[in-house]
Amino acid sequence: MKIDLTDTTAGEINKALVQGRRAIGTPAVGMVLTLVIVTDEENAYDALKAANDASREHPSRTLVVIKRISRTPRDRTSSRLDAEVRVGAEAGTGETVVLRLYGEVVGHADSVVLPLLLPDAPVVVWWPVNAPPDPAKDPLGALAQRRVTDTYAAEEPVRELTARADAYTPGDTDLSWTRITPWRSMLAAALDQVSCRVQAVEVEGEEFNPSCELLAMWLADRLDVPVRRSPSAGPGLTGVRMDTTCGPITLDRADGSLATLSIEGQPARAVALKRRDTAELIAEELRRLDPDDTYASALRYGVDRLNTAPDQGASSSQESEAGAASASSSASASASAGAGAGEPSSAADAPVAEPEPAQEAAKAPAKKATARAAKKAPSRKASAK
Q1: Rounded to the nearest 10 degrees, what angle do helices 157-166 and 293-301 cross at?
Q2: CB 3.0–4.6 Å: which of 33, 48, 167, 238 could bond 134 by disulfide?
Q3: DSSP per-residue codes, 242-279
Q4: Confidence of residue 29 (pLDDT cuts 50, 70, 90)
């Protein structure tokens, strides 16, 4: 059942919800939470479809807030609220209200949503696109116990992770983090099968995929080992390799659906790791409404700390080699100086100095005088006899 309301109020919307429930024969309210979706007209259909699919597991009242853009000064000064109430088969297992805000009421969306929240039920706010810089300080985010964003939809996903870490508040979460839940479970189960120490990790995936960065930060934070990030053609995450004292552990997924787990000394096994759609991700996030401390710890590790440990080791070794070379040069110079102070052991060991041109020019007249004196010496001896 669908009820369209034009230029309406929150009170009229509540009356339409009661009227719709009575019309379909379900006057009782059986929803467990309120899901508020803040999106634009372009992404409203996909977000609402995912929420309706997730409502089969979590019956909820879904409020879709669409902020329409006013293109003329007259439209900006006027305010209007249009609503579309859906109950029954068109709303999944819950209730759906699509709210379209025009004019000045766009800046007061929390005042429109507040009267429509279910009493004594938790509130979850989801931004499929264009999430605010600080979700907890957003007027709609302040009403919720759980705030869901998606850095994959941002223009610069990796930089968005840094902004999320700076503005993190308990209750924030990210669908890019939810996408790697099967990977984290499989890697933890693989490490439980061996009694080895992890020495280094390599995460392979798409270059600008925030899920790959979050998985790398989680491994670096939990294992306290160097983690290297390697780009690939995708789709999404394609592989993780852990170098351990007992041999490598590899989880490789090249086609986006079936992965291969390889552990040293054990036969390789196939693992189902298909890429999940948005409805499954939202359903997973609605299962828990408490703060995700593991996500907070991985997020605060920092993207800039990845791929730094190996480079620092290489620079340290280069500095050590340079120091050794300079030390040996100093020792050679000291030995040469000591040999010059005493008597050289041989003529080969004695330092040979090349005469400068000025000194050669000064010695030339003296050599000529000596040669003339040598020629006159026999005649002097003859006269003396």
Answers
A1: 120
A2: 167
A3: EEETTEEEEEE-SSSSEEEEEETTS--EEEE-PPP-HH
A4: low
**CA dist., res. 76 & res. 97, Å (int):** 24
Residue 149 corresponds to which tokens in the numbers above?
């964003």
Angle between helices 293-301 and 210-223 (to 10 degrees): 100
- Integer CA distances (angstroms), 156 to 42, 162, 211, 231, 326, in order: 20, 11, 13, 16, 45
Q: Which two tokens stand for residue 5?
A: 């309301």
Pairing, β 79-87 against β 95-103: antiparallel
- Show the tokens assigned to 361: 């020019």
Both ends of the chain: CA-CA distance in Å?
151
Task: Find where tokens 């949503």 sit.
Answer: 113
The pLDDT score that the predictor gives to residue 286 is 93
Which element (helix H / strand E) includes 282? helix 278-285
Q: Are 206 and 235 contacting, i.e. CB atoms less than 8 angstroms apart?
A: yes
Q: Are 20 and 42 in contact (CB under 8 A)?
A: no
Residue 254 burial (10 A CB sphere; 0-12, 13-18, 19+): middle
Among 45-54, 122-131, 260-269, 358-367, the minimum mean pLDDT is found in 358-367
- Rounded to whole angstroms, the Cα distance separating 190 from 356 reads 75
CA–chain centroid gap for 119, Å, is 37
Cis peptide before 235 (omega within 30 of 0): yes
340: left (phi over 0), alpha (psi -120 to 50) or beta: alpha
Contact 275, 141 (CB under 8 A): no
- Identify the CA nearest to 87 among candidates 10, 25, 11: 25
Nearest CA to 275 out of 152, 190, 98 is that of: 152
Q: What is the mean pLDDT of residues 259-265?
A: 91
Q: Look at residue 28 and give its three-state secondary structure.
A: coil
